[in-house]
Amino acid sequence: xxxxxxxxxxxxxxxxxxxxxxxxxxxxxxxxxxxxxxxxxxxxxxxxxxxxxxxxxxxxxxxxxxxxxxxxxxxxxxxxxxxxxxxxxxxxxxxxxxxxxxxxxxxxxxxxxxxxxxxxxxxxxxxxxxxxxxxxxxxxxxxxxxxxxxxxxxxxxxxxxxxxxxxxxxxxxxxxxxxxxxxxxxxxxxxxxxxxxxxxxxxxxxxxxxxxxxxxxxxxxxxxxxxxxxxxxxxxxxxxxxxxxxxxxxxxxxxxxxxxxxxxxxxxxxxxxxxxxxxxxxxxxxxxxxxxxxxxxxxxxxxxxxxxxxxxxxxxxxxxxxxxxxxxxxxxxxxxxxxxxxxxxxxxxxxxxxxxxxxxxxxxxxxxxxxxxxxxxxxxxxxxxxxxxxxxxxxxxxxxxxxxxxxxxxxxxxxxxxxxxxxxxxxxxxxxxxxxxxxxxxxxxxxxxxxxxxxxxxxxxxxxxxxxxxxxxxxxxxxxxxxxxxxxxxxxxxxxxxxxxxxxxxxxxxxxxxxxxxxxxxxxxxxxxxxxxxxxxxxxxxxxxxxxxxxxxxxxxxxxxxxxxxxxxxxxxxxxxxxxxxxxxxxxxxxxxxxxxxxxxxxxxxx
Length: 607
Known about the structure:
Blueprint: H1 2-7, H2 15-37, H3 39-47, H4 65-83, H5 85-135, H6 138-143, H7 146-188, H8 190-210, H9 214-237, H10 239-244, H11 248-274, H12 276-302, H13 307-348, E1 369-378, E2 383-393, E3 397-402, H14 408-415, E4 423-428, E5 431-432, H15 438-443, E6 445-448, H16 459-463, H17 472-481, H18 485-488, H19 508-522, E7 526-530, H20 538-552, E8 556-560, E9 572-577, E10 580-585, H21 587-593, H22 596-606
Parallel strand pairs: 3-8, 3-9, 6-7, 7-8
Antiparallel strand pairs: 1-2, 1-4, 4-5, 9-10
Helix pairs in contact: 2-5, 2-7, 2-13, 3-4, 3-13, 4-5, 5-7, 7-8, 7-9, 7-13, 8-12, 9-11, 9-13, 12-13, 17-19, 19-20
């Protein structure tokens, strides 16, 4: 229950609905009990004439309230029977109908108020989960399956919401119904009620044994649910590769293995859960039979209990069965909800390693240089960067080149603070970027990645992602600089054209030019270009390269380059190998040095 108590913190804003729910549940429990107690005077008056009361009872203090209410009710019914038996029957039926109506009215109202509580918690939990996902560092998701995260924000949150209903019933409605019913039973016959007290805990113990493994099974089910969602997500995002390599059967078998495991786990889970209801009902009927035997002796042999009271007592005893059965179901549901809450809190309580320092500054301008000073960095065990240093003066373009795995893209990730350095520092205008607010730092930078990351939305909304309330004129200007307006203007809906999932309605070159237009519109002082042309054909590359040159004019740029022809005009070219700088200088200087850079250029020229 530890995890569930933490989740209950999300209910605090909706406590007024919880209070109204509790009030309605109290009345539900009261009228549920009264509806059975009403049977006693009815049976007494209609079938045992000696119990009729012809004299109006007199109030004799609170101690005798039970006798006063019973006699007063009998008196009212007796008056009507003496006048007209049909009228008496209508009166009695009216009382019974009214009690059951009030019971169900308050039952509905309790559910009505609970709805706002449950759905409010559902919304707030999802909002908190999504906000946390946005706040967590990029490194967190490189280790996790996307499908598992999706499962936690959907299926697990739904499970908690469902359990929320169960736990409030567990705490309020059903225990109160049992409590009021037992009080009424004690007033009728303490001896018979004692038998109920003896057998109900035994029944509860048996039910608890059945549910012992439920949380474990529920956890397994939710983990497997996350696994098969991951397979679906990977299949959808890699469908061309799956089909191109005729791997449909392989992926189908992987998916089927997962759904078979989930099916096996769910069968055990649901069958164990379904066992709760018949077990509790059977044990309840067993208790009723014991009461019939003991109570029958008290009525027929001992004469210590009248028949009408015994019949009402049986009704009350059966009235305990339904809430007891609901409590057993709810306890199962709470165990499942606790397992889901554990998985949700695992995300919500994950510490974010990339956070703003307490005294972090809000930097608005870029004035002089970016300096990378003696940094070391490793993703896991092996160092990706070793004692790396470089300076990027304002207004200049510095290009990073080298073979794959040399650490070029890592530099881009560190400058934008997607990761933090292990040793050394990265400074902007002499201030360590860890002392600058993340939002402020990233406002100074525009990012164009190798993969064109676009959203299933319009061109307008994709391009204006970094600048709210951008005018059409500003968007069109940025598209022109990015050489993208030439194809956007010919689209049927222009700026309002939806580009599909990940921009798949466009070609690779068109997608990349939209990414550049997005960075241009943001108009930051520093541009980070991470192999922005490496995935393009020759014609698209020329258009994109022209767009990049337009964008980098009079701007500070860090360019991670795969195609060396695109960075020949850079102010400084840094050649990297295994995380270290092996050469640096301008293009012509490096060619003259006849080193690694020249070999890389010759290899690409040969290609």
